[in-house]
Protein: Serine/threonine-protein kinase PrkC
Amino acid sequence: MLKRLATTSSEYNTSWIFHVKPTIRLADTNRRGFPTRTIETPVAPSLRLFDAQTETTKSLRIGTRLDKYRIAARLGEGGFATVYAAYDVIEDRRVALKIPDNRYMENSQSVEDLEREVRLMSKLEHPGIVRLKDARIIEGHFVMVFPLGAESLADRLTRRIARATAVDYSLQMIDAVAHAHETRILHRDIKPENFILFPDQVIQLTDFGLARVQTKVKRVSASGTLGFMAPEQAMGHPGYRSDVFSLGLVIYRLLSGELPDYPFEAPLPGYQKLRKGLSSDFVDLICKAIDPNPKKRFRDAVAMRNAALRIRYLMSDRSIPQSMRTTANPRLSRRWAA
Structure:
């Protein structure tokens, strides 16, 4: 049974997970000219179909062939999965493969996380979110296939980024997280490593392994990356506002070159650099996003995006008098200033 499923070759082949044929909706291109596709799938019953005798993911060698994908390089390892750069020999393109270590698939929580990630990513269609291209068992390994970007934002932050480019990245990131929130999805692990850069200054959000559909607020175990985690999330109370906090810290790091440690103390490291070349409104937007008190932040990334769009409009409309182009709250700016 497993071998038959593993040898099935079809793009968007997720029917083995859901026991039904997935619905595929095709669109010509998105607003940035990239082809877009959406998989509509029901809830997955289980992924526990792995052969314990199969070699572990971490032992996959460069040059290994998994159906039409040839492993080219190991890009990194996460909590329970390894990401590889690979080459699609049929479609003649480079892709990224996320392959959980088979040993972790004996853990029911790991299986649930993987099931959830496949379900959630199949629902998301947005130019700022990495698309899930394929998800299936190949030769005993569960393989998730994504477009291969140039590098992560974390890698890019090791080199200087032009101010205009950094602001553009910031707006794209806000828009991507806002779309997830509009779909009632909490990411819960927003950090530079989970933003991938593509050509034409496109940046996309990825890794929804810790994501949750937001329903009623209830206490859950703390998950995420501590350096970018909101205080309430560390206490087991994640929400839209905790995603906003993490997003705000990523943007602060991008625009200032520094990452403040919690609990914050004024002056924040890099605050003066943050202000350089930015409108006071946009600085206030970032400060509001990273406020330690969740009630003082934007309620979600949708509200944050709306505020950013208003700022962008006011700053670009030359028919508006200069005196009316700022809606800055001086208390926000002074709070973290020297």
In short: Residues 151-335 form a domain with the Transferase(Phosphotransferase); domain 1 fold (CATH 1.10.510.10). DSSP finds eleven helices and 13 strands in the chain. The chain has two domains: 18-147, 151-335.
